[in-house]
Amino acid sequence: MSLTLTQNDLSHVVAADREHVWHHLSQHKHYETVDPRVFVEGKGMKLWDTNGREYLDAVSGGVWTVNVGYGRESIANAVRDQLVKLNYYAGAAGNVPAALFAAKLIEKMPGLSRVYYSNSGSEANEKAYKMVRQIAARHHGGKKWKILYRERDYHGTTIATLATSGQPQRAAQYGPYPDGFVMVPHCLEYRKQWDVENYGERAADAIEEVILREGPDTVGAIVLEPVTAGGGVITPPEGYWRRVQEICRKYEILLHIDEVVCGLGRTGSWFGYQHYDIKPDIVTMAKGVASGYAAISCTVTTEQVFDLFKDAPQDTMSYFRDISTFGGCTAGPVAALENMRIIEEEGLLENTTRMGERMLANLNVLREKHAVIGDVRGKGLFCGAELVADRKTKEPLDERHVQAVVAGCLAQGVIIGATNRSLDGGLNNTLCLSPALIATADDIDQITDAIDNALAKEFV
């Protein structure tokens, strides 16, 4: 460990944090009696806090972001050099790293061609929604303005993206929401809504039922995560995506894939949708695009979508009249270029596949050992273990016990995640694991060993 400052050296930092920082997703009453955790340094998959305590990070920065690990000097140096040369100009003009990263990104995404820059996943999705609405206004006489979203999926923190939140606790207390956003059923086979043999196709057919109910001429797009993330790490059942694609083509509905979590290697492919042989019209991404070294998000479209905004140059309202101030920062794309180089040259997609298989295998061993684990699922280094009070009835484990398991891992120096303050019906019961793509076999074993010990302690 290279941390040299002592706890006393950093006491003023902790005090300043307690007095002035408003933390995300946190009840601050707790900090009246307990110091907030303040991290000081990271290297690889490890973190150190102001007390000098070491942690193994199994959630890539807490929200599935630091894909290539901490302490990458080559990314920091690339950003530094670019900022000295040119730090910013508004996105109405181009810059060198933005052009180069867009070209490199499109190489990984056959069938898509255009990259619109902004700086967060929420913003990237908001841009996509605005595109759909403007297309409806200009090309469909104001019709096809509705956007479908899926139960248990999540797409961001703005009012519009929360209107497409399939996680009711996330959206609670922030309404009323704008009209035109319509939910379709989830596709989690472990908690299936229909007792049929071809569950995947049936779950997709439920989307068509919603389209017919709303009126196909009113529906412009559907936004879906390739693997549902914060809603419980839900991998799509067999036949689901093929049928979804068919339905979108049948009713001329744009297919928008939200890759904010799954993109840039998390599932073992460059993008999660690439596992399922589908051809999206819009793809959004953020988080792992630059592994958290700079803020960047992208809304990527086909040329066909792009062309809908340039067909009437004499019409001053025809172009996409949108801007993202910090979408003009050069740090994001230059960091993204180096991040992509690292993934390629270090073979991190292949490592993600191998280590993901190991993690799933380890979790399935734990499932045999601990009756509280009802289901194990995942893709690449993105895995979940759903905890239940009773395997036969699938009654969800009380969220207090789930969080006790998370705390039990933390006590062992391993940071894991879990669904929380997201879903109704007691369904905040899935442990979530998303270690960096650099994870080794020893890292994976340490993570699952910590879960094993925490479960054993909580359910003696």
Low-confidence spans: none
Number of domains: 2
Number of strands: 16
Distance between the termini: 35 Å
Q: Which word captures the global form?
A: globular
- CATH homologous superfamily title of the largest domain: Type I PLP-dependent aspartate aminotransferase-like (Major domain)
Strand order of the largest sheet: 4-10-9-8-7-5-6
Please state roughly what percent of the residues sit in beta strands, choosing from under 5%, 5-15%, 15-25%, 25-35%, 35-45% or over 45%: 15-25%
Give the rounded overall mean pLDDT.
96
Approximate helicity band: 25-40%
Briefly, what CATH class of the largest domain?
Alpha Beta
SSE string = HEEEHHHEHEHHEHEHEEEHHHEEEHEEEH
**Second-tier CATH architecture of the largest domain:** 3-Layer(aba) Sandwich
Give the helix/strand layout:
Elements: H1 11-20, E1 39-43, E2 46-49, E3 54-57, H2 60-64, H3 73-85, H4 96-107, E4 114-118, H5 121-139, E5 146-150, H6 159-162, H7 168-171, E6 181-184, H8 199-214, E7 219-224, H9 240-250, E8 254-258, E9 282-285, E10 297-301, H10 303-307, H11 331-345, H12 348-369, E11 373-378, E12 383-390, E13 395-396, H13 399-411, E14 414-415, E15 417-418, E16 430-433, H14 441-458
Parallel strand pairs: 3-14, 5-6, 5-7, 7-8, 8-9
Antiparallel strand pairs: 1-2, 2-3, 4-10, 9-10, 11-12, 12-13, 12-16, 15-16
